[in-house]
Known about the structure:
Order of helices and strands: HEHHEHHEEEEEHEEEEEE
Shape: globular
Amino acid sequence: MLDLINADRAKFGRPPVRLGMNAAAQQHAEDMLNNFYIGHVDSGGMKPYMRYSLAGGLGAMGENAAYAGTEDPNDTRLYAPIVPRERLAQLQYAMMYDDADSNWGHRDQILEPQHQVVNIGIAFTQTRLALIQHFEENYVTFTHAPILANGVLTLGGTVDAMLGALRSVDIYYDPTPRAYTHAQLLAQPHSYSVGTSTRPAIQVILPAPPGSFYPSLPTYVSVAESWTGTGTSFQISANIASRITQPGVYTLLLWSANADYPLTTIALFAG
Length: 271
């Protein structure tokens, strides 16, 4: 599978990705197989970045999901056995060259130039197969991984020099995950978003320069109490307790000066 992905990336002038070790991809493939569905939300109600973070991921990620076979656990019809290697090649081809029904989202994910790593999950029986691709990038080296404790967010590290200094931390909210029934798994949309709104629930920004102030800010914007560092290094502390209004999942998207994509999709669980 890694060779197929890199062959497709090479055709479009993209650098190769290396194989990652985050366990969430394999766990999700097994969940899809065991529960007879294809989808980004798993049987526990979790989205991809939640699983990725719980498995130790500290970068940014995006997921492709593919499935072959029946989604009816009561289907007793006889099916021809699949050949896993052949079916994986067919699924990869479909995501690259027959993806119009998904607005070419799978293809776009495969070809994103900033990806560095792919975590692959494969699970199969004689007649069904589930495939997960978790594409990942790690452009932030953390000396202090993000922690949300008593309403105070702290984090520290260094951004890859090519991407410039950190400029903001966007935080998106999801309700606490709840288990899905099989019917809910089948009915879910075949795409996902970070959070439940296109706008972040909270945005943490740098303090105003000495001697100046922000005249007015949107209600969702929070000025960090402390934001220090030189070059692309940073140490941030922000009291966002007044904006953590309900339990759930608060996902951090870090943005830097020279990148038009988020550097992280780190999910923090509150309450």
